[in-house]
Amino acid sequence: MRRYRPWLAGLLVAAAALSWWLRDVPPPPPPASPAMERQGAREIDYYITGLDVTRMTQAGIPAHRLRAARAQHFTDDDTTQLTAPRLTVYQGQAPPWEVDAEGALVSADGDLILLSGAVLIERAGDADNRPMRIVTRELRVQPRQDYAETDEKVRVESDTDWLDASGMQAWLRPPSRLKFLSRVRGYYVPPSN
Fold first, then answer.
1. What is the CATH number of domain 48-187?
2. Which candidate, 88, 129, 137, 155, has a CA 20 to 30 Å from the CA of 163?
3. DSSP letter at 14?
4. Percent of the chain beyond pLDDT 70?
5. Around Cβ 143, how many Cβ atoms within 10 Å?
6. What is the phi-psi region of residue 124: left when phi exceeds 0, alpha when psi lies from -120 to 50, beta otherwise?
7. Distance of alpha carbon 178 from its chain centroid, rounded?
8. pTM for the full model?
9. What pLDDT is recorded for position 24?
């Protein structure tokens, strides 16, 4: 029996090598791009045309109003995609902020809205506030905090004044304020007495 052990071991090694060489395993598929994987997994469970939702404060006063031409809800991550959204942020007695965008993605919990494409933010003037118009792109909004930010270029216009910057933080709840992050330049005409 000892005489056959090396021969048997050699036969087993040869059989294993032959089976490995003859195996018929198809090559792995090419890796899919993240966009393709995301698109393939997206499934809409409902959609709404003509969306119009108002969120109230605890005192029963309107805090925000969100309108969109179309809303689609996705089952894979519980997000909602909006077409032509318009967000109104009410300011008590002052004119509200109106935020328009090409599109938006709303997080599952509603705490984050990613406005995509061109974004226009406007506020009408009144006795205490000058009218304001802000043009930018790709705005992140936290509606419960009335806060918005972008890293993109920003153009602010108010009457004859203007300001250009890269990046902005905006607190829209009274007292409203804006912070510009870099490359700020502008033109300002002081009010005449």
1. 2.60.450.10
2. 88
3. H
4. 78
5. 20
6. beta
7. 20
8. 0.71
9. 46
Residue type at 115 in one-letter notation:
L
Nearest residue to 114 via CA among 165, 77, 155: 77
Taking the domains of the chain in order of start, what are their residue ranges? 48-187
8 Å CB contact between 147 and 121: no
- Rounded Cα distance, 46 and 54, in Å: 20
Over the stretch 145-168, which tens digit does the pLDDT of each residue have?
A: 889 999 999 999 988 889 999 999
DSSP structure string for 28-48: PPPPPPHHHHHHHH--EEEEE
Q: Is 85 within 8 Å of 100 (Cβ atoms)?
A: yes
Q: How far apart are CA 70 and CA 46, in angstroms?
A: 11
Residues in the chain: 193
pLDDT tens digits along 100-137: 999 999 999 989 999 999 999 999 988 888 899 999 99
Q: Which amino acid is at 60?
A: G
Number of H helices and E strands in the chain, helices first, is 2, 10
